[in-house]
Amino acid sequence: DIQVGLSGGAIIAKAFEVAGLPAGVLNVIQTDVEEIGDDMLNNPNYQLVSFTGSTAVGRHIGEIAGRNLKRVALELGGNSPFIVLSDADVDRAVDAAIFGKFIHQGQICMIINRIIVHEDKHDEFVQKFVEKAKVLPYGDTSDPKTVIGPLVNAKQMEKALNYIEQAKCEGATVALEGERIGNVLTPFVLTNVDNKSEIAQSELFAPIATIIKAKSDEEAIELANDTPHGLSSAIFTSDLERGEELALQIDSGMTHINDQTVNDAPHIPFGGNKASGLGRFGNPWVVEEFTTTKWVSVQTKYRQFAF
């Protein structure tokens, strides 16, 4: 979308220009697939393609790069689970889930997309989560107190509303009914959500919280893994040692114990598994991704050969 191209492309390019970066070092091209085609992917001068975006486009890039023996670094879509285990502190879990679900109206690749709660904690979690969600300030984001601002465009708003209507038809319960105010969508909370439903398996990019009940901690992990994606994830538990063991069972590039899913830092291996991408970003991992290792040997004296 042009909105992304402006904020993530043209504005950054202008900032580097003002900072004095020499001309030609950073090149930003505003275009579309229909216009540029695959020429940049097939160009023999480029040996690596780094892409951040949808899984569908990432697969296309990967196919072409594979044919050309190019390396790829792909940061793709997510469907991040937030797991509340049977021994979790519900109040702390609710605080984290509210932040990780509604920051930037849910428009982040590693946002909490599914909240999976053990049945022993489910009702308490839903009650406290709804209480906090329904009083989140919304509207003009120039006000620092505002939490829920507008979605990126009208098309995304329509997609969000369609997800909600379909979820209702599939049997989900509306624990908190939001509303559309211009291009602002106030929080929706849906319970009795089937993990295989479209709303649970789609990357929503909207302030829509889906809560899934698990019969056991083991089932919670199974539900978390039951998605093609594997970017970020989170587990709430009072047993940190067990939390670390279960974290390794979640097939995602990142798992945060007693935290929410939206975390990043320059010194961590940021990236996903499965349909969420290939490669890791952050120092020093990104250096390995963007460079080629070469072996250079030097003989300091004449070598004797067998023949």
From TrEMBL:
Asked if the Swiss-Prot or TrEMBL record annotates the protein with the keyword Zinc, the reply is no
InterPro entries recorded: Ald_DH/histidinol_DH (IPR016161), Ald_DH_C (IPR016163), Ald_DH_CS_GLU (IPR029510), Ald_DH_N (IPR016162), Aldehyde_DH_dom (IPR015590)
Protein's UniProt keywords contain Flavoprotein: no
Matching SUPFAM superfamilies: ALDH-like (SSF53720)
What range(s) does the Aldehyde dehydrogenase domain occupy?
10-296
Keywords on record: NAD, Oxidoreductase
Q: Name one Pfam family in it.
A: Aldedh
Which residues constitute the catalytic centre?
75
The Swiss-Prot or TrEMBL record describes its family as follows:
Belongs to the aldehyde dehydrogenase family.
Instruction: Indicate what this protein is called per its UniProt record.
Output: Aldehyde dehydrogenase family protein
* Species, as recorded: Halalkalibacter alkalisediminis
User: Taxonomic lineage of this organism?
Assistant: Bacteria, Bacillati, Bacillota, Bacilli, Bacillales
